[in-house]
Backbone:
């Protein structure tokens, strides 16, 4: 496999993960992702922005979040994000330890 093919496959896998979280599972809360996987949509947006900046492209956090969420972050939050429950917050804290 060439380097270009590797990049294309990795990019396709990222797009599939992003689309899965955006379209098929917007109900999955970021805190649930953090508890179970140690990353969330905001992490993906941060990694996306860092990758752009490492290639000399300026990108704001809001632009990166919109690329990952498929809409402005505030709109996604209003549509899909619920306040974390006390149980979720406790599980998140326990995972951090």
Residues:
């Amino acid at each position: 496999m060439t380097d270009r093919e590797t990049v294309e496959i990795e990019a396709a896998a990222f797009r599939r993960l992003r689309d899965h979280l955006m379209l098929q599972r917007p109900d999955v809360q970021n805190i649930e992702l953090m508890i179970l996987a140690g990353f969330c949509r905001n992490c993906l947006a941060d990694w996306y922005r860092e990758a752009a900046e490492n290639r000399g492209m300026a990108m704001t956090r809001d632009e990166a979040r919109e690329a990952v969420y498929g809409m402005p972050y505030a709109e996604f939050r209003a549509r899909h994000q619920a306040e974390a429950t006390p149980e979720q917050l406790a599980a998140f804290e326990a995972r951090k330890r």
